[in-house]
Amino acid sequence: MIQIGDKIPATTLMEYSEVEGNGCSIGPNPVDVSAASAGKTIALFALPGAFTPTCSAKHVPGYVESYEAFKSAGVDEIWCLSVNDAFVMGAWARDQKTGTKVRMLADGSAEFAKATGLTLDLTGRGMGLRSNRYSMLVKDGVVKSLNIEAPGKFDVSDAATLLAQAKSH
């Protein structure tokens, strides 16, 4: 399992773009995790699934609402990762009104989740292999803090906890 001091996995995530810009075409675009995190401070949080109750009611809204505070604490970008496809993450971004505040990144085949060792097997609930709920502060690709939730909990991966850690780093 990934630990504080480790580099985040050099995988590729997918991001749905609503508008054409910065050389990106509309639709799913690959995001090279190593390149996208290089030289940046990232507030990264991951969750079991788009449109699921806790994720939609509490997890994503907390980060959207805390965007300015994260920026003031030196965070360059906020990333939300889920084992869903880019189209679902794009639709969820519209639903949650994340705009440019939170990058909604799809880990469609759970490659990032598997590489971190933070998977959650929800096969019994009809959801297959998913990501565990967690948050991490990443500086230049290296994990500086890591908050992993116990199954079914939402106590330590919230925006307030990671924001306090960002302010102390």
| Helix run count | 6
| Residue fraction in strands | 25-35%
Quaternary structure type: single chain
Helix content: 25-40%
Mean pLDDT figure: 92
Overall tally of domains: 1
- Structural class of the secondary elements? alpha+beta
Integer-rounded radius of gyration: 15 Å
| Uncertain residue segments | none
Strand order of the largest sheet: 2-1-5-4-3-8-9
> Strand tally, please?
9
What is the CATH level 1 assignment?
Alpha Beta
Major sheet attributes: 7 strands, mixed
Shape: globular
Distance between the termini: 22 Å
Find the CATH topology.
Glutaredoxin
Under the CATH scheme, which architecture would be assigned? 3-Layer(aba) Sandwich
Please write the string of helix (H) and strand (E) elements: EEHEHHEHEHEEEEH
Give me the CATH superfamily.
Answer: Glutaredoxin
How would you portray this structure in words?
With 169 residues, this protein is an alpha+beta fold. The strands form two sheets. The chain has a seven-stranded mixed sheet. A two-stranded antiparallel ribbon has the order 6-7. 30% of the residues lie in helices and 30% in strands. It is globular. The chain has six helices and nine strands.
